[in-house]
Amino acid sequence: VYRGSVKDFPGFDANQDAEALYNAMKGFGSDKEAILDLITSRSNKQRVEICQAYKSLYGKDLIADLKYELTGKFERLIVSLMRPPAYADAKEIKDAISGVGTDEKCLIEILASRTNQEVHDLVAAYKDAYERDLEADIVGDTSGHFKKMLVVLLQGSTLSQAVPPSPSHKDLLEAGELKWGTDEAQFIYILGRRSRQHLRLVFDEYLKIAGKPIERSIRGELSGDFEKLMLAVVKCIRSKAEYFAERLYKAMKGLGTRDNTLIRIMVSRSEIDMLDIREVFRTKYEKSLYNMIKEDTSGEYKKALLKLCGGDDE
């Protein structure tokens, strides 16, 4: 069952849409309403086709024109929607490691939550877009166990087949709770290389034996970005919808909004599991994602995000 909020637009015509966007940007100022209505009601596959049609019809790059016409958060959101998912992820990671300092939260969110195939596509897109090796860039920008785990996740080689429960829970116990000091390599190996089904069984066993959830042990045994990454991996194994609902809530609660996080999640999950995220959000925070976005954002930016949200659950 499809759980995204954005679907293919019926009766889609790439040339017609390219022309409509061209007209919306022609002359002085642009018709932002028309741009947002069109782009948020097409699927990513259709948007990519519109980019190609635009190039054929006008000999121009649609993304470059949109960047020129739009500004701020609204521009970032619209441009992000125009990129194929792997290229959108590649751009986010490039931004996270460029310049001074690193946006570790962005690296954690993307690499802890993507499937093997999505990781492979991301690595290829990064190479294609920037003519650089993603692993080398991440290794150059991070350190310690955090770096090691990111490299494991970048292999996109978590075992997908169901593995019968093995002594992994005991290995994790011995790596953490029962050992003087922590064997981080063992945590990395098990959490980075086992299938989701297998790890869920391991977490259940761990709870029985250790008498506490694996998350509590990770908090007690690990620290810093490495701890945050491992917790994100565990959360995504348990429920990606819950992980993203929590990220969205944190991006909007309190003073100021973490717009990059909000944009990245709304764009990347709109054709995967936005309906599940909305459901979890409603249950967990006793308010709808739609309402929280509405209260927290404004203008065309708000309208576009609400379209991606796809409905109110109040």
From TrEMBL:
GO molecular function annotations of the record: calcium channel activity; calcium ion binding; calcium-dependent phospholipid binding; phosphatidylserine binding; phospholipase A2 inhibitor activity
Domain of life, per lineage: Eukaryota
Main subcellular location of this protein, as a coarse class: membrane
InterPro entries: Annexin (IPR001464), Annexin_repeat (IPR018502), Annexin_repeat_CS (IPR018252), Annexin_sf (IPR037104), ANX6 (IPR002393)
One GO BP: cell differentiation
Subcellular location: Basolateral cell membrane; Cell projection, Cilium; Cytoplasm; Melanosome
SMART domains: ANX
Cellular-component GO terms for this entry: basolateral plasma membrane; calcium channel complex; cilium; melanosome; mitochondrion; nucleus; vesicle membrane
Keywords from the UniProt entry: Annexin, Calcium, Calcium/phospholipid-binding, Cell projection, Cilium, Cytoplasm, Nucleus, Phospholipase A2 inhibitor, Repeat
Domains: entry comment: A pair of annexin repeats may form one binding site for calcium and phospholipid.
Sequence similarity: Belongs to the annexin family.
Known role: May associate with CD21. May regulate the release of Ca(2+) from intracellular stores. Calcium/phospholipid-binding protein which promotes membrane fusion and is involved in exocytosis. This protein regulates phospholipase A2 activity. It seems to bind from two to four calcium ions with high affinity.
Name this protein carries in UniProt: Annexin
Gene source species: Oxylabes madagascariensis
